[in-house]
Amino acid sequence: MLPSAPMFYSQETQSPASSAQHRTDVSIPMRDGVELRADILLPSAEGKFPALIYRTPYGKHFALKEYKTFEKAVARGYAVVVQDVRGRYASDGEFVAYQNEGRDGFDTIRGAMACRGGKPAAPESHGAGHDVFHAAQFLLLRRRVR
Length: 146
Description:
By secondary structure, the protein is an alpha+beta fold. The protein contains 4 helices and 5 strands, in the order E-E-E-E-H-H-E-H-H.
């Protein structure tokens, strides 16, 4: 069974030749007031879209240039949130490896949910061990949302 994802809603119109809307450096507030910034890619159609979240300490702009997965996801109807982690590149705060990933990941998912409702999907992260951590975090968040 697949969990439902955070939903983004778009009313902007695009020409048919355009494949996606790209919003740059969108601020997502954390519970301690620090602003993390993300680029958001949305399909060109109007409507609600399930969201995929990718957080990186290596620069969201590099990820957007390097990976074609994001474009493929948008073409298949997903919103994609690519976020610089705390203290790296466009995001505010101090970077301390792995110290804030749980809280910031949780707050990012909540921010995506608040954008237009929906329930969270487990995000991708920047370490092999984080997939298990975020899956556990997702299950806890899901229990609180119900």
